[in-house]
Amino acid sequence: MTVTIGRRELLAALGGATAAWPLAAARAAGGDAGAAYRGHHERIGTEHPMTEASPVPLSRRTTSGAAAAGAALATATFSGTSSMRAQTRSKGTFVLVHPAWFGGWCWKKVAPLLRERGYDVYTPTLTGLGDRAHLARPEIGLNIHIEDVANLLKSEDLAGVILVGNSSGGMVITGVADQAPELIAHIVYLDAFVPQDGQSMLDIMPPDGRPPMEALVRNEGQGWLLPRLAPPPWEKFVPEAWRITDEADLRWILPRLCPTPFGHFKEPVHRRNAAAEKLPRTYIRCVQWPNAVFDRYAEAARQTPGWRYRELATSHIPYITHPNQLADLLIEVIE
Q: How far, CA to CA in Å, does 303 sit from each of 52, 296, 297, 298?
């Protein structure tokens, strides 16, 4: 006897899955284990952190993108990779991009909150990090990380995407927007770097910030991996600098932080697509994280056409410490 299973039955039988969360830097005030890093990090900056972008109205129709053309698909993703989609209407699609050392796993608290509110959520892991750490190799860098996310948008037929990046994830989402502006509805820099055309992370840093990082790469990273953000071990740095003090969070985070290919910091990003520069953008400043460069980005966002500015009363990585507040703000920004 032959039993034929239809596509609808197959979709119904297979649905479902998971989510994840990102990164940061250090507090600016002396004396503790992260003081040396925080001292130079406060001086990071660019002379003109924003370029002018024309305002573009954002609506639910825009964020729904291709879904509005037919049966919209709400998805439960496998940590940001390919997924089976349920035949229900979605309000829009978030793509959440983690920074160095983290993986798609770091959005684990935020992604379900957005899905509960009717949004699709993708949390890709950049090559060489997280569950893709086994793919790390010396030639991995920012360009491949940009391709990781750009290819996700294309392979999943996404459109009207709300693209979010935290910390060095701002470098990645800037490059993605330059490659595929037609697939993006809004860009959100969550306490993130906003590079100019041709800048790398090392370009943004002051000259005295490079030697400590290069020493870590040379002495502990086989010449091509940056093992951590600053000389102190993660066990000391994470609670002191990032203010993650919950014991359950620490047990979850610390074993998952991965050395990052140094190319993530060395390779420049490009901003040459005029269509990308017209996309609406929001800068979210986490005001309990003292950082002069992010303050400059925040001030520029207040004054630049096409930008919105919001604040969170949190430290640098609110997707871990304040996921509910972050989810509420992300939805407020795009609705």
A: 10, 11, 10, 9
Give catalytic status of residue 167 as yes or no. Answer: yes
Q: Work out the percent of the chain whose per-residue pLDDT is above 90.
A: 67
Integer CA distances (angstroms), 280 to 55, 178, 201, 314, in order: 6, 13, 23, 24
Contact by Cβ (8 Å): 22, 319 = yes
Predicted pLDDT at 88: 56
Instruction: Identify the structural domains of the chain with CATH numbers, from first to last.
Output: 16-334 (3.40.50.1820)
Model confidence at 154, pLDDT cuts 50, 70, 90, reads very high
- List the beta bridge partners of residue 86: 74
Q: Catalytic pick from 79, 83, 90, 167?
A: 167
Alpha-carbon distance 206 to 211, whole Å?
A: 10
Q: Is the dihedral of CA 111, 88, 149, 189 positive or negative?
A: negative
